[in-house]
Amino acid sequence: MIKEEREFEINIAEILWAFWKRLWCIILAALILGGASYFYTKATAKPTYNAGAMLIINNKPDGRDYLSSDLINTSKELANTYTIIIKSRTVLDEVISDLNLDMSYDALAKAVSVSTVEETPVLKINVNHSDRATAIKIADKILAISPDVIVGAMDVGSVNVVETTSAPYDPYIPSAVKPAITFAFIGALLVCFVIVLIIILDNTYKSERDIIDDLGYPVLGVIPTLELSKTTVEKKSETTSVRGNL
Fold first, then answer.
1. How far apart are CA 78 and CA 55, in angstroms?
2. Could you give the residue range(s) of every CATH 3.30.70.1130 domain in the chain?
3. Is the Cβ–Cβ distance between 158 and 176 less than 8 Å?
4. How far lies 154's CA from each of 24, 82, 148, 245, in Å?
């Protein structure tokens, strides 16, 4: 057990040392992937406008002039169902037809998002489009069409508009920094993975201690590595040349 723990510590130290020696590779990979992601996002990202509006669903039965907590909870629980109805073909196909939009149902469904407001029966509708006026028209048309469809499909009390459509004049431009950081991290992680893989697959002996620990045999001798200077090499080369001429 002591031997295994010692080998594990040595391996961790070896891996950390390998990371340090190849730190420039890790940084280079992070810069390449992060930079590529940044410039790609900058080149392809399109500014969009977001138009928003709100609806409230009232499950009050006919003849009741008040809302109980049970009815409010029921409205909140059915919020996901209302979301599906608002993004259904029944609503969005009519929006496309009435506004003569050059969009498919799937494209419009991706541009429309519906969410609940802090676990209340209030639904917030958001429409993203490259043109501000078109985003507002789509949101207005959804407000006009969806209440009747929801009432007819779910037999609820009423669907009322809480907040009419509004859209900021400044477009939303996707940030290029976040994906760049993500890809930079992925690049560094890939290089670290390759370094670890090389160390794991390397089964060569690096020292006498490796041989003793692995094989259990004593080392009888070590052949030294001779480092010859350039002058010594040149002299030996000249000597060999002279002997050859003789």
1. 14
2. 49-166
3. no
4. 62, 9, 10, 107
Question: How many CB atoms are closer than 10 A to CB 185?
Answer: 13
pLDDT of residue 168: 81
Q: How many of the other CB atoms lie within 10 Å of CB of 178?
A: 12
Supply the pLDDT for residue 130.
87
- Predicted TM-score (pTM) of the model is 0.57
Tokens of 178: 């976040």
The Cα 149–Cα 145 span in angstroms is 7
Q: Which fold does the domain 49-166 belong to in CATH?
A: Alpha-Beta Plaits (3.30.70)
The pair of structure tokens assigned to 23 is: 């730190």
By three-state DSSP, how is residue 68 classified? coil
What end-to-end distance do the CA atoms of the chain give, in Å? 65
Which residues of the chain carry a pLDDT beneath 50?
Answer: 1-9, 62-68, 242-243
- Contact call for residues 75 and 159 (beta carbons, < 8 A): no
Q: Are 177 and 38 in contact (CB under 8 A)?
A: yes
Q: What is the C-alpha separation between 123 and 112, in angstroms, rounded?
A: 13
